[in-house]
Amino acid sequence: MTDQSAPPPVATAQARSRIEWVDTDAAGIYHNSTVTRLVESVEAQLVRERGLDGYFPVAPRVRFEADFEAPLYFGQEVTTTLSVTNLGRSSMTFEFEVWGEEFEGAPRARAARGRYVTVHLDRSGPGPARSTPWPPDWVERLTRR
To answer: I need a labelling partner for 97 at 20 to 30 A (CA). Which of 2, 14, 25, 125 fits?
Structure first.
């Protein structure tokens, strides 16, 4: 999904999984919300791999967009790739692709692609949480090659 002239991603993670019955309608075709579950699972993997303890409670999504390009079916294997494409002072942009692997004679196809933005919040004081810079150790762990 990233432009060929764009800088390389800050960090990337990938996972293989399978579309389960709970992910589908009665016809066995995935719900669009399944994409969010797949992507968040890979985000959790990336956060664990990079040692960003306490990330999820302080990094809500403030924007999420997806293009749905092909159906996925019950039992089909999928590959989800997630990349941090921009690490700002207090925000982070992710791009993702979800690919349906070969299934019942149909070729591998991209099922969805999109992007979303999270913002780091300071929730330590009274009142509403405020945007605050990412902790320096998180920035170091995310940008480590």
So the answer is: 25
